[in-house]
Design brief:
Gyrase A, domain 2, Rossmann fold, seven-stranded mixed beta sheet, six-stranded mixed beta sheet, about 15% strand
Length: about 450
């Protein structure tokens, strides 16, 4: 593992979210975490207490009582960071929290950097780099599926898959390296056919992992869902009903929405990022024209399209022509007929030829549950088994997997051309390096800084 010496300072940070609350938690980690806390704590002698115990007392600066607190002790190596860790639960006043933190700084602690607790846990061998990144995903998870995937990765599901692949490659790399030691005797320890079979198998698994990223990205970041249609089709009304708040301006005047409006909701454990866009029409209004242009940009960036139309204003043939024009890439699309409360039954029946049509009244909230169900089915997560299926959610992992795949391609090409063992071994080492970047068996300070500075302070 490549990284510079890790600081042995004792760090401190507020672990709870900013703002006033009933309780705040201040966390320390490092060799002096217990002794520093003990120097300001009035109660039991913390240095004499057992690991995983909680103690009531007061935090004092000289004789001044700052607060009554509970102190939780985690003695190394039985803690999150594998160092001495103390968590002080105090009242949630910003003033109290800052007074206690300042006092701890005076006694020898320093403020933690973003992600430094988890970085120490990684460097001290508590878990690997992929698991550490899953901690951040778990904190930011906002749906049942994103929580489930993050939990599996934090427990090492993805890491185990990568380590297994890497171990098999290491075996062959060592056999080829051994051949180089007996170069003059022309011996072959590594069976080339077995190596080809292994590499083909690893590449198949990598393809499956890379394919899972499309799904993993949806689970982690939500489904970008664009609501498009002609002016006054009811797009803003629909967005407001889905969000259950007056997010978008609703007016009978066409062209009210000049720019896109974005918000998200959770449907059956899946996060949908809804984007209400400017109505699609020819216009001489420069501002509205910019809005229409942005609508087309958002369409190209979306993963799911809701095409909303006023059923009283158009024919089925016009709708089908517009669907073909707007969706040349054949993205998942739900056609939605709005204002059915104003249309006679025979008018609604005339649109039966539109595939997967959902009929609603956005103003009255009619059939919105049917629309939500259609959206979930279009995302097609129904067969997903997050307990057994390994899902990639991190773009850094995708990059490393792509580099691994390319290196393995070079190994196969080298074997096909009968290249010498040292050249084949060099390509295998490249593959091993890229796989090692995922779990942190290969790291640099820049890589670690890039990962952990994205964490919140106190984690």
């Amino acid at each position: 593992m490549i990284h510079t010496d890790f600081s042995n300072d004792t760090i401190v940070a507020v672990a709870t979210a900013p703002g006033v609350g009933a309780i705040a938690v201040i966390r320390l980690s490092g060799p002096e975490a217990i002794s520093i806390t003990n120097s300001v704590f009035k109660g039991k002698d913390l240095a004499r207490q057992a690991c995983h115990t909680i103690h009531f007392g007061t935090i004092r600066e000289e004789e001044k009582v700052l607060d009554e607190v509970l102190v939780s002790l985690f003695v190394a190596p039985h803690s999150y960071t594998k160092e001495n860790v103390v968590e002080i639960s105090c009242h949630g006043s910003d003033y109290i929290v800052q007074q206690i933190v300042q006092l701890l700084l005076k006694r020898g602690a320093r403020l933690a950097n973003a992600g430094e607790f988890t970085k120490r846990a990684f460097l001290n061998g508590q878990f690997d780099l992929a698991q550490a990144e899953a901690v951040a995903d778990l904190i930011s998870s906002d749906s049942a599926l994103s929580h489930e995937v993050a939990m599996k990765q934090m427990r090492g599901g993805f890491s185990q898959e990568i380590k297994r692949l890497r171990a098999e490659l290491v075996h062959f790399a060592s056999m080829i390296e051994l051949e180089l030691d007996f170069g003059e005797e022309d011996v072959e320890f590594a069976d080339r056919e077995q190596l080809r079979t292994l590499i083909s198998n690893i590449q198949r698994i990598i393809r499956e992992l890379l394919k899972s990223f499309e799904l993993g990205n949806v689970i982690k970041n939500g489904v970008p869902t664009v609501i498009v249609g002609n002016p006054n089709a009811g797009k803003s009304t629909l967005l407001n009903k889905l969000l259950n708040e007056e997010k978008a301006i609703v007016s009978d005047v066409p062209g009210t929405t000049r720019d896109f409006i974005e918000d998200e909701i959770n449907i059956e454990g899946i996060t949908f990022r809804f984007i209400d866009t400017a109505g699609l029409r020819e216009t001489t209004d420069k501002v509205e024209a910019i809005g229409v242009e942005r609508t087309m940009q958002k369409l190209s960036q979306s993963s799911l399209i809701i095409y909303l139309f006023d059923i009283t204003e158009v024919t089925a043939a016009q709708v089908q022509a517009e669907l073909d024009r707007l969706n040349p890439k054949k993205l998942p699309l739900v056609a939605v007929a709005n204002k059915i409360d104003r249309a006679p039954a025979d008018k609604v029946a005339a649109f039966e030829s539109i595939e997967g049509l959902v009929t609603i009244s956005a103003a009255e909230g009619a059939n919105l549950d049917e629309l939500k169900q259609a959206l979930v089915e279009k995302v097609n997560l129904g067969k997903l088994n997050t307990q057994s299926q390994t899902i990639v959610t991190n773009l850094r992992h995708v990059d490393s997997l792509n580099k691994t795949y390319a290196a393995l391609d070079d190994v196969l090409n080298g074997l096909g051309l009968g290249m010498s063992g040292d050249l084949v071994a060099a390509d295998i080492r490249r593959a091993l390096y890229s796989l090692g970047e995922i779990t942190g068996e290969i790291t640099t300070d820049d890589l670690l800084d890039n990962i952990f500075t994205k964490f919140c302070i106190g984690k």
